[in-house]
Every structure is written in C-alpha cells, then in structure tokens.
Amino acid sequence: MTEDLTPAEAYAAARARNAERATALAPFREMYDFDLDPFQIEACKALEAGKGVLVAAPTGSGKTIVGEFAVHLALTQGRKCFYTTPIKALSNQKYADLVKRYGAGKVGLLTGDNSVNGDAPIVVMTTEVLRNMLYAGSQALSGLGYVVMDEVHYLSDRFRGAVWEEVIIHLPESVTLVSLSATVSNAEEFGDWLDTVRGDTEVIVSESRPVPLWQHVLAGRRMYDLFEEETDHGGRGASRREVNPDLLRLARTENTRTYNPRDRRRGKMVREADRERERRQRSRIWTPGRPEVIDRLDAEGLLPAITFIFSRAGCEAAVQQCLYAGLRLNDDDARQRVREIVEERTASIPGEDLHVLGYYEWLEALERGIAAHHAGMLPTFKEVVEELFVRGLVKAVFATETLALGINMPARSVVLEKLVKWNGEQHADITPGEYTQLTGRAGRRGIDVEGHAVVLWQRGLDPGHLAGLAGTRTYPLRSSFRPSYNMAVNLVDQFGRHRSRELLETSFAQFQADRSVVGISRQVQKNEEGLTGYREGMTCHLGDFEEYALLRRDLKDRETELSKQGAAQRRAQAASSLEKLKPGDVIHVPTGKFAGLALVLDPGIPAGRTNGHRGFEHHDGPRPLVLTAERQVKRLASIDFPVPVEALERMKIPKSFNPRSPQSRRDLASALRSKAGHVNPERHRKNRAAAADDREISRLRTAIRAHPCHGCDEREDHARWAERYHRLQRDTRQLERRIEGRTNTIARTFDRIVALLTELDYLRGDEVTDNGKRLARLYGELDLLASECLRDRVWEGLTPPELAACVSALVYESRQADDAVAPKLPTGNAKAALGEMVRIWGRLDALEEEFKINQAEGVGQREPDLGFAWAAYQWASDKTLDQVLREAEMPAGDFVRWCKQVIDVLGQIAAAAPKENSTVAKNARKAVESLLRGVVAYSSVG
C-alpha cells in the first residue's frame, strides 16, 4: 500500500511512525500479544500528555490496561505509582499481576492486614490506606507521580464511598489521577468535577463490549433468545432490538393462567380436554433445577458459567444439589491437577482445622469442577476457587453478587436465578446497573467469540422488564460523601475550619447538589421575568395596585377562614345531635342517597372505635343504622347529616324484627310511614354568618373602598394580573426554598459536626486539642465512640482477650434482625466495659440529636454491636477454631473477616492510646498477636 502514497504522504507517515516509537506508549504496547483498543490508546496518549483521565467502560473491556500504563509511565519517569482498589481480594490479585510483570522488588502491597515492600515504586493498596496516608502526611507520598483508582464508581457505596472523594480532593496537585469506572450514564458530569478539583482531565467513554453478549431465558427444556434479532451484537451497532414474540406469548400464557375458585362454587367444571392441554403445556414450562441448568449449559458448550444466587446458603445448597445429582465436569487428569493445586495452597492449614472448615466436601466438589464463592468462605478457599476457575479446572461456580465487584473471573456464561435480591431492608428488583455488572462477567476476551447471559424462567417474569434491564447498559454515579468526626479533626488540623469548609464544598456530592439546582435556578429566573411583566400589567394610574390587591386577598383569606370555622362548627353540632339518637327514633335524613324518613335501629358508636358492623373501623363520629321508608336498611355516615338532626317521633321496634328479612323490613317500613308520614320536618334555620360581625372583615372592606384604585374603570382587569402575579410569586418562593435546602448541604453538616466536637473539647476554633489529635488517628464508623472510651479510660486494666471483645463492638454488624436473642458475653471486667461503651454511645446519641446530626443521612454513631464479643474473646484466649465457630454459629469467612477488622482497629487504638500511665496500647498490641493466628493469619496474602 505504501507505493500508492505520494512522496509527501509517505514522508508524513514515516514521521508519525518515528514519533510514536519515541513515546512511552510504543514499548508498552509491545508487552501485550494483542492490539490495544482505540479507547485504551486514546486514554494512554492523554496520560502521556500529562492529563488526568477518567475511563468508563464495560466490565471485561480491559480498562485496567490504562492503569497499567500509568505504572509503566511512573517507572519510566523514576516516580511512584499507587494502584488503589476497593477490596483486598482485588488488591491481592493486582499485586500478583504486577509482580509477575515487574518482579517482587518493584511492587509492594498495603492493606489493612499486611505491609509488603511498602517503599517500592509501585504499591497496590486499598483506598482507605491511601486516605489514611494523606491525613497522616506519610513520607511514602514523596515522589508520587500517579494514582490509579480502580473501580472508582465505588464512591456511590453509601458505607465507604466517601473515602474515594477524600482521596481525590486531598491528593497533591502534582499527582496525575487515573480513574477507572464501569460504564456510568453521567461520566461527563463526573469528569467535569474531576476537571474542577484535579485540573485537566480527559473523559474517555466506551460502551462497546469486546465480546458480544447474547441474552437468553431458560424455560423448561427450551432456551429462548430474549431479543428476536440482536443485530447490534451486544451494543456495537445502533439497530433496534425487539423482544422475542415467542417469549412474550409464553409470559402471557403462563402469567394469566390462574385458578378461579368461583368456577367450582358456581358449579362450572373445566373440560377434561382443556385440563389435558394445560398439563401438556405446563410439562414444557418449568424453572429448571440447578444441576439441570449446568447439565444443559455443558451440553451446549456454554461452560464455564457463574450462577448468581443472592444467598450464601443458596450457593452452598446448589453445590450439594449438583453433587447429589452425580454431576461431573472434570476428567481424571483435571481432577488430579485440582487436588495438587488445592493441597499445595492449603498445606499450611492444620488437619484439625481442615475438618472444621468442611475441607473434604469442598475438595470433592472442586474435583468435579463445581464450587461456591461467597463472603462466608475462608479467604484462602475463595482464592483457590478463583485460581481454578481461571485455569478452567472449575467450570460451574455458584456465587453471590460480591463476585461481580472487580474480581477477574470471566466466564463464557452467566446465569441469574432471579431478578430480585435482598438489599438489607427488603426484597427489591435488581437495578439496570447491577444487571450490567453481573452479566458483564460473560464472555472471555481472547477466548470466547461471544458471551451468554441466561435468566431462569420464574412465574411472573416480565420479558419487557428484563429487556429494559438488558438494554439499559449504564447507571448514574451518585456521590455518597458525608463528613465524619475523624475527617473533621483531620481537615481542621491541616487547613483550619474556613478552608476545610471550602474544601468540602468541592466534593462531588456538593457538585451534584449544586448542579441539581441549576434547572431550578433557571426556572426562578424565568419566573422573575414573568413577575416583571405581570407587575406592569397590574399598574394603575390611580395608585399602588399591588397594595390594593393585597387588601382584597387578605379579605378573601379571612372570609375563607371564617367559612371553614363555620363548617367545622356545623359538623360538630351535627355529630353531637347524632350522639343523642336512640333506637326507635324517627328522623328525617336531610341529604344524600337515602334522604327522607328513616327509623333508627342502632345509633352507632363513638368516633375511633370499631362498630362491629362488617369489620369496618370509623373515625368520623356516630354512624346510625336506619330503616328507610323505602324498606332499605343502611348504615349512614356523618356526611349524610350536614345539619343537626332531631327525633320527629318515637316508634317501638318489634323484638322479632330481622333486618335481613324482606317481609320484616316491609312491615316495619309500612308502620313507619303510617306513624310519621304526615310529619313535616322543621327547616334548619341558618345562624347569622360570622363574617357579618367580624371586625377584621369590616376594617378590610372599609380600607378597600377607601383605596384610590377602587374607583379605577379597569380595576378587575388589573386584579386578574395581580392574581397571576401572586400565584407566580408563591411558586417562585417555593423554588427558592428548594434551592436553599440543596446548596451548602455538606458544609452545613460539617458545621454541626464541628459544633459537637467543640462541645466535647476536640476542637477549639482552628486548634485541634489533644483529644482531637487522638480522634484523628481513629478511622472507622464508631471513631468518636472509640475516642471517648480512651478518654474515659474504659479499657484500662482489661486483658488482651477482654480488650479484643470490647473493640469487636466497634466494628461488628450482625446479619440478624434487631430482635434476635441477646448475644453471649464474656463475664467480669469485659462485660462491665461493654456496658459502659453502650452508655457512652447513649450519651453521644443524645448529643447528636441535640446538634441535629442525623444517622439516617449517613452521619453519626450507630449503636455498638456486641454480637462478636464472645467469639473474639474466645479466639484471643487461644480456643480452638472448632469450638469458636460452633459457639459463634458463624461461617469461617465471616469469622476471619471480622477478626481482621478487629485487628485493624486494635492497631489504631495502640497508636492512639496514651503512652504513659496506661495499659491499653500494650494490651492492644498483645490482642493483635492473640488474634493473628491459625486461619486468621494464613487466610490470604493481604
């Protein structure tokens, strides 16, 4: 092709090639055995040009390549690169990848548990570790050139998301930020914010999947395509996709086929032929069992597969069901390789612990190519499952949604059992974002030609709703940023209160809040222009018509108020008259459907109590049961009596009267007409209107008549403009109140936190007290409670196991309901200290209420949870794993995770506790040593 170029074009092409060879990108591209995608090249070029980048791309598209280029640039320039991740498992995985490429000497790992080569030029860490470094002014920050924030969309997480924003705001200006995100619909908005707080930031969005994704519904023996024609190949084109009509027909048939019990009561029987046809149809449509699904996927060459089940117990049950069904996905060679890898990775775990951990059942499933993956598993076991799955030695994994968070476990197929999950408060439909995240695992780049997402048929499934989930490929990124006590003292210590307040107003949360008022502000501006026009329309040459209109409006409001008072008074009089009625009273019903002569059978009951008639409950006064002159027995309501009612006559009601008997009603109604048919009810005389004697109304009418504008010939025309002006002004004020409520929200919360900390002597103006400096070293949800416990010497004199039990209450959050049985607690000093912690929390809770610090908004101290205290005490007291897990009734993975969080906080307490006249720091370190043994010590790299 080069001979087709003109000399000038050939020269230009040669220059371009030479220029590219001179860049850092050229040698970087040679490290990979595949070509980079356009969005990856664009992002890398922006980075090399000195810009920050935000890369938003689907799961599995290879956006981490951009992060790895930042690592490459840092090494090339002799600078440092920190690679942050939201979870330790992802940190471990990225650490292993970078060690493989650059060698262990150049790569470090910092998590809450371990520190490996922390002074290396490349350090992988959790985001919290970097946040703590920034607040502590760590020396490790010197020479830092790049920070990669993987899974940056995690800042939407309501529990931990604030950490991402803290890091972005506080990183030195000299650091180039690389933000890697899932495909979010407001990437440009997030990019605008990054541009504001970090400087020149290029936003690169890619919505095309590297491997096309096909969507299916598995119903009975048939696999239905969700879309009739996926001509856009998983999002690459722009053609319209229609929902498969066969699937829509199936949904209509299945979801409308219901048994009507009235058919039997009416004596109608379904014909035998119809029942037989329905049985045949039903035999083709069912929700396949878990072994059946895996068998079907295997037969169609769609393994390996990840089946998402939103329950840990469900994942374990699925593995057992596959074992009982005799499912085997591995041949003898694969079984042997699985056993070798597993035995090598678990060699350090003592035999007695293996039995407790269910090792042998777990190994049997792995040898067959089947596994579970969830947070309740031992971290080592999870890592083995991940390794075997990537190697193709595990072909069916049953996982909770936590697997979707960044772990590199791509599959050929993803199966979703249901589209509903428990969100911690209720069972809710999964969102388009969650669906995209889960199905994003399907399709392995460089291995699979296409990926497959399979949803199992469930009764009530709506194909249109499912198509909406599958078609909405993005979801908005929403900030969860809220100031905390620890954040407040750290900010004030570094910047003072005024500058801290300004910094918080640069958060993405405030950026979004301010943007949300842009449209409202625009409407306010339009309204103000309209008000100017209306003001001109009501201008009167005789005087101030706005003043005159206000008098008219005040008069109208006063008349309305008196009218409402009069109506309420009449209702009260009517209700009072109804309460005086007795059985046998003949009355005249003044209005309504049953107006006319009526006999009271039952006067009803007082308001607010159940009347016993058909189970209704009434709160609007007595409801008399009457027989009308037309032989109807009806329960009347207060609305039928707008005026008071009086008895016209009295009649005796026969004891034999049965309101359900037509003959009985006919006879009594005839007697009613004979007794009182000739009586004419007295017309209710209206009372004199209150407005006639009201002084305020008299004053306003006089003022109106005396006003110059009252004599204007165009008075009513002006009045119409004035009314429009009033309505628009009222609407504008409402909009202004909405704007006021949304602006400066973060700063106002910060002000309340600072006020409370000042009350507790953590802050004195811009000065951070010794108490405040202690709080600055304590990170966590209950940071202030931990600091108060240190100040009040609650933990002095506790043994290491007792201290571990107390500290567990600062981190643990039970998965059980609030009304679960009281947890078992250690006795003696530990129990007394835990009780004191709860009392201190009660004091802080009352203070937060006084200072209007709202836990519902994600700010404040939750109640300490004592549910892990006994397990932490037992483990720190050197009890066996079997004994601790049996008494705690807790999965091994949960136990290890909570122990590590307790260890993390114990380390903070050891650093924050007084060094003199205190045993807390020494015992905290001893407690860490006591906890860091067995499964807790060898659970994972990090």
Regions with little confidence, pLDDT below 50 for 5+ residues = 230-239, 258-271, 607-619
- Give the C-alpha Rg: 37 Å
How many beta-strand segments?
Answer: 24
Note the beta-strand portion.
5-15%
Spatial strand order of the main sheet = 4-3-5-2-6-7-1-8
Percent in helix: 40-55%
**End-to-end CA span:** 53 Å
- How would a textbook summarize the main sheet? 8 strands, mixed
Overall 3D geometry?
Answer: globular
The overall average pLDDT, rounded, is 81
Helix and strand content put the structural class at alpha/beta
- Number of separate helices: 35
Quick description:
This protein is of the alpha/beta class and 942 residues long.
Task: For this entry, give a set of tags.
11% strand; 942 residues; 24 strands; 35 helices; alpha/beta; globular
Topology:
Elements: H1 7-21, H2 25-29, H3 38-48, E1 52-56, H4 64-77, E2 80-85, H5 88-102, E3 107-110, E4 115-116, E5 122-126, H6 127-136, E6 144-149, H7 162-170, E7 176-181, H8 187-198, E8 201-205, E9 213-219, E10 222-225, H9 245-256, H10 261-265, H11 272-284, H12 290-299, E11 305-308, H13 312-324, H14 332-345, H15 351-356, H16 359-367, E12 370-373, H17 379-390, E13 396-399, E14 413-416, E15 420-422, E16 427-429, H18 432-439, E17 451-456, H19 463-471, H20 485-504, H21 508-537, H22 545-579, E18 585-589, E19 596-602, E20 625-628, E21 633-635, E22 649-650, H23 662-676, H24 695-706, H25 715-742, H26 745-759, E23 763-764, E24 767-768, H27 770-775, H28 783-791, H29 800-811, H30 829-850, H31 869-876, H32 881-888, H33 892-912, H34 920-931, H35 934-937
Parallel strand pairs: 1-7, 1-8, 2-5, 2-6, 3-5, 6-7, 9-17, 11-13, 11-14, 12-13, 14-17
Antiparallel strand pairs: 3-4, 9-10, 15-16, 18-19, 18-22, 19-20, 20-21, 23-24
